[in-house]
Structure formats: C-alpha cells, structure tokens
Amino acid sequence: MATVAGVNVAAVKVFARASEPSPKSVSFSHVNNPWRRSACVPIRKICVAAAPDKLTNKVEESIKAAEEACAGDAVSGECAAAWDEVEELSAAASHARDKQKDSDPLETYCKDNPETDECRTYDN
Amino acid sequence: MAVSTVYTVQSLNSTCSISTPSKPFSQKHILFFTTTKRALTRSCRQISCSAEDKTVVIGLAADSGCGKSTFMRRLTSVFGGAAEPPRGGNPDSNTLISDTTTVICLDDYHSLDRTGRKEKGVTALDPKANDFDLMYEQVKALKDGAAVDKPIYNHVSGLLDPPELIKPPKILVIEGLHPMYDERVRHLLDFSIYLDISNEVKFAWKIQRDMAERGHSLESIKASIEARKPDFDAYIDPQKQYADAVIEVLPTQLIPDDNEGKVLRVRLIMKEGVKFFNPVYLFDEGSTIEWIPCGRKLTCSYPGIKFSYGPDTYYGHEVSVLEMDGQFDRLDELIYVESHLSNLSTKFYGEVTQQMLKHSDFPGSNNGTGLFQTIVGLKIRDLFEQIVVSRTAAALEAAKA
C-alpha cells in the first residue's frame, strides 16, 4: 500500500542522512545481490560494537563539560542543563550496553531475512 | 448476530480487524437494504468495530534510570508477545511495538534538542523543553483511531530526527517524565502509574548503572542527581498525586543500618474509586494487616519477607496500600505469597509466579518491584478487557435505542 511504500522511502532517506552506516541499510543491497550474504553479517557486527564506544566518549566529555560549567556557578541553569546531559548520555550508554548484551548477530539477521538459507526452519 | 459480535470483542485477539475493511461496503449496504433487522446487524458490526478502534491509553511517569524500561517489558509480556522497535525504521527510535501494545517515549515531544537546551540553560525536566500541544494532539488522534507522524528524539545524537508513522494500537502506553503534567493529556489517560524511587535507592541504582562507565565517579553521579533535583521536585514529583497507582521504592526496614540498597521495601499505593480498577488486597479488604509468611509452613532465609496492607490517605485521596519488604529466594515463597493475595486479576492460579519466572533476569525479579510491576500489568489487562466490554455494551445500547 502507499503508506508502506512511503515509510520505506522515508527510511532510505533517513539512512542517507545518518552519519554512521546503519546495519539495516545493508539488508536493502542484500535483496539485489544475494551472493553478498556472507559479507553482511561481519559488517553488522562492527556497527553494533561502535555505538557504545562512541557513547562512552560522549559521556566522558559531557562530565568534563558539566564540571567546568558548574565551577563558575553551582546553581545556574547551565550547570543543571549540563548535568542533565550527563544523565541522558549515561542512560543511553546503559541501554546500548543492555541491547548489545542480548543481541545475537545471527538472530538479528534472521529476524529480517527469514527466507535465506541460514535462517530457514523445518518443522517436519 | 449481535451476541456473537460481543464474544469476539472480549478476547484481545479479536477478528474485528478483518471486518473493518468491509466498513465502506457495510455503509453502502445500509443505504441499499431497508429491512430493520439487516440494518441493525450491519450497524452493530460497524459500531462494535469502531468501539474497538478506540485505543486504551496508559500513562507511566518516572525519572530517568528508575525502571521504566523494565516495567514496559513486563507489561508488554503480560499482554503477550515481545515489544520491538519498528522494523525498517530509524534504528534510534524510542518506540516499541508488539501485537497489542505500542509504547511511546515522551522524550520524542521535546521542543528543544540537546544544544537548544544547553543554550537556554534548561533541563529536559523543565516543561519549557517539551511541546505539550503536539503531545495532546497526537495522543488524542491515536486514541480516536487515527495514525500520526510522531517526531523522534535521538538520545545518541541529541537531535530531533524526521518523524515516524505510528498506527493506533489496541493499547497505547505513553512513558516519560511528563505524562500527567498537562491537564488535557491527563484526561486522555485511562490509567496512570508513577514510579516513586526514594533518593537513597535512586543513588544506589545509579551507582550500579554508571560505575561501569569510564569517566564517572561517585562525585559525578552525586552531582548529577543534586543538580537535577530542583527541577525534578518542581515539575515531576507533583505528578504522583494524579496517578491511579504509585509504586514507591524505599530502603528496607528489616536490616538495621543497611546502605547496600539490595533489599528493598516496596509499596503499591492504589487509588480507591477508579473505574474498572479493583485494588489488590491481603486477607480482608479494607482492614489493616501485618503478615510475615515465614514460619512453620514456609522457611525463608535472612532477612525474610514482611507484608502489610491497609487503607490510607495519599494527597487527599482514599487509597489502599500493599507493602512488601524483603526478597524472594525460592519459587515456593513466591507461589505461597501469590496464593494469599486477592483481587490479582490473574486468569489462572500461579500466573504472577509464571510471569516473574519468565523474566527472572530482569532487575527486581526477586523483590517487590518485580512483583508489583507484574501485578499492575495484570490489573491493566483486566482494565482493558473491562473497558472493551463496556464500550461494546454501550454501543449496542445506542444501536438499539
């Protein structure tokens, strides 16, 4: 239906704008080039590992920035906003750590591509 | 015909969605067929479909790092199915979708992104950083059965991403810092919950969460909590007076001078007189009970378990409070406790225990937080089913009249 096509087009646009390569964009090229299947999974692994490192650096930087902001005036709005940013980034880092803990690369790949040979299940 | 429609609606997996596409056809049929009997069944099916199209909205308020995600996972599990981010969409989306529920994070309605808030010197807790008009508009649209294009707040980059399409679900859960802050949104909620974590417990949980992170120290965690406290007390905390259920987490009273924060005392404060919501009680509704299950029939390890139940007032409302202090160590402790609680809205004996065991790896699975979150989840399922039945009954009455 038109709505579904619209979402897909919008999704592709989002990936084009995103600064880091999203694992999902690999699945589009897979549909057109099925022999590239084996190349998809290692790329996906690298993408998943990158996020927490980037976030860890962001958390460190934000803590330093917050300490500087509050050195001047401990009750100002800037100080509160800076520590709020630290809190937000710490929460995001902890969620990313939890997601990474449960994700199994084969399971995540098979969720989106159940028809591929690696992911087929036989019930009889 | 009318009776069979009622029965299909009662189950969560109803077949009404199949007949919905026939709505335009049924409209044509009403025009063509003038027999009253035929028109009645057609209009009944149409009206019962539209009664089911009206979404049930649940609000969940809590500060960051207080167990909202864990609660969401338990809640979606009670309804069946796992909630996942929308397929093929923005990977940093905060929305979770399962068969029956959609969970929307209210951070998506931030009007200022991270740089904007830094410039203005406001925290995310401040109402100035949130667009309540858009929140009200979209929650109302979803409740009335219309799809919306909801913005996405990317927590990694701190920017507002392009919107994603959200289709109206059977149950919509809005979770975040301000679900009950705006009065108009508050009136749209069919049920609301507030997770009230005391300062000592919050500090202990944040230490557990953040000490693994490079760059954090005890002082930075403490400074972060202190800096956010004024905004939290001014804008978030007052929402607890509007909640239908409050889960309050305090340090234990069973261990003197405990500062580890492992054993918790959890209170489930349930408002009386809420439509379709019957508070859980212990032994005798409306009386005051203190109960220590450990004894001859049940052996518990230190520090044991202590329950209490009684009526109380909370911010001027009549409430019933069920309290649990201590930890579960074994399966039979859990089933023993479950068999003595009443009004749990379980569909079979041992459902609470089964749900707790299914998620034994979640934090809080061995104490009151997991237990009360599971119980509230079952209560919400019961509330949903009662709302659907009452709407269908009202629609049938209107059709007959």
From TrEMBL, chain A:
SMART domains assigned: CP12
InterPro entries: CP12-like, CP12_dom
Sorted UniProt keywords: Disulfide bond
Span of domain CP12: 55-124
Domain of life: Eukaryota
Disulfide bridge partners, by residue number: 70-79, 110-119
Name recorded for this polypeptide: Calvin cycle protein CP12-2, chloroplastic-like
Automatic annotation (TrEMBL), chain B:
Keyword Transit peptide (UniProt): yes
Catalysed reaction, written as an equation: D-ribulose 5-phosphate + ATP = D-ribulose 1,5-bisphosphate + ADP + H(+)
Pathway(s) this gene product operates in, as recorded in its UniProt entry: Carbohydrate biosynthesis; Calvin cycle
Pfam (any one): PRK
Ranges where the Phosphoribulokinase/uridine kinase domain occurs: 57-255
Subcellular location(s) per record: Plastid, Chloroplast
GO cellular component, one term: chloroplast
Matching NCBIfam families: PRK07429.1
UniProt protein name: Phosphoribulokinase
